[in-house]
Amino acid sequence: MSTISTPGIGSGIDINAIVGAYIDAERVPFEARTKEQEDRYVNQITGYGTLRTAVDTLESSLAKLTESDTYGGMKMTLSSSSYFAATIDETADAGSYEIEVQQLAEAQKLTSAGFVAEDPVGEGRLEISLGSDTFEITVAADATLDDIKEAINDATDNPGLSASIVTDDTGAHLVLNSSQTGLANQITIKAFDATDTEITDGTGLGKLQFDSADVAGSQMSETQSAQDAIIIIDGSLTVTNDSNLIEGAIEGVTFNLTDTNEPGETTRISISEDSGQINNAVKAFVDAYNNYIETSKSLQYVNLDADITAPLAGDATLRMMDRQFRGVVSSTFGETGINSLSNMGITTNRDGYLEVDSSALSEAIKSNTEDLQNFFIGTDEEPGMAVKLEAQLQIYSGADGIVSTRVDTLTGQVERLDIEREIFEERIATQEAQLYSRFNAMDAQVASLNNTLDFVTSQLKNLPGVVRNNKD
């Protein structure tokens, strides 16, 4: 008997079609159900991602409103930036001042007489002072001017003196530059010979002697004298400082001097309350809150006629967030003064968005910043609106917030669907193999019976004595 290699060839039945119909009867509804579930979960995950962005933006907008510096901040303007830069801190008070930069602080610079570069300078030691700090270097008998330069620069206790060599037609000159400005940081150099006797006659190491108290009688030349910075405030108050960075002359103000004024010329510095900082912070919050409301509405939108259902329509978490946030924003804080958003010109329209009356807000900022601070930040007895709203937002935002937890749950459900699909495919493959096995066995049985029938029929036809009866 021949082997049947094509399903159904023995019986004439389309086994592939029958098995395919059985499998499709299970696969089609399964795939439709899991795809619908996956699409719903993925859309919800995307929706929560959009929501989390809006929540994070709203939380960020509260940062300035919860900082006390926002309400007591000052701003500073200069009539010119040509003579000094200035910064202010929280201790600065409102006021204006006329500043004349009369003199800049300078660091001292010395230059020696010319030496033959290769010749030894002389044995001994140098005692070098920069202001109140002193260090020493030992000079060997064969040391050149370059060796002395290196010894000065390499000294670990050098307080800020740099040495270099400049060579001109008269020889090599040792040049000393102080890194510290001001009269208090002048240079003094004493030279001692090999017997540790101070050299006063200008020989050997004595050529490097210098006394700031007697510049004319010194061996080294002063090419730049040390001097203090001097500024005149309001034409009558003189401030002297050893550096060009002046602090404390005006409380809360730091000056960094860069150039001197012409005599009688001044630069005005004006310090005033920075109301724009509060205004900007409040409006940034309003924009972020309205963005949250818009995001929430779009995620919950439903239009049955157009068959539109947003991914978080009917979502209990989002509805709870809306109620809590609106509750905080619409609350009053305190008994009197500016104790609600409406008191500063901010109202809620019929669609839930905040609207700002800029004139009313500016007036509230101008009239009572302390009330605004108490409203947004709070007092010792009660936290303010911004602090409370920030606390509510933090429940939902962040890696451990409710929104992230919800996303993790939905992601887990998508992963479970993938596992369910794998299990289904394994089961359906087994079932398909079983169906083919059964139908192929049946097909083989029918084929065998048909072959037997054909054989019996042919044998009967060939039996002796079997005569066909043909009638005329």
From TrEMBL:
Summary of subunit composition and partner proteins: Homopentamer.
- Give the coiled coil ranges: 407-434
Q: Which InterPro entries match?
A: Flagellin_hook_IN_motif, FliD, FliD_C, FliD_N
Principal location class: secreted
Q: Which residues form the Flagellar hook-associated protein 2 C-terminal domain?
A: 226-451
Which Pfam families does the record cross-reference, listed alphabetically? Flagellin_IN, FliD_C, FliD_N
Protein name, UniProt field: Flagellar hook-associated protein 2
Protein family (similarity comment): Belongs to the FliD family.
Q: Tell me the keywords, alphabetical order.
A: Bacterial flagellum, Cell projection, Cilium, Coiled coil, Flagellum, Secreted
Q: Where is the Flagellar hook-associated protein 2 N-terminal domain?
A: 11-108
Record's function text = Required for morphogenesis and for the elongation of the flagellar filament by facilitating polymerization of the flagellin monomers at the tip of growing filament. Forms a capping structure, which prevents flagellin subunits (transported through the central channel of the flagellum) from leaking out without polymerization at the distal end.
Tell me which GO cellular component terms the UniProt record holds: bacterial-type flagellum filament cap; bacterial-type flagellum hook; extracellular region
Say which species the protein is native to: Neiella marina
Q: Does the entry feature the keyword Coiled coil, yes or no?
A: yes
As for subcellular location, the record says: Secreted; Bacterial flagellum
- BP GO annotations: bacterial-type flagellum-dependent cell motility; cell adhesion
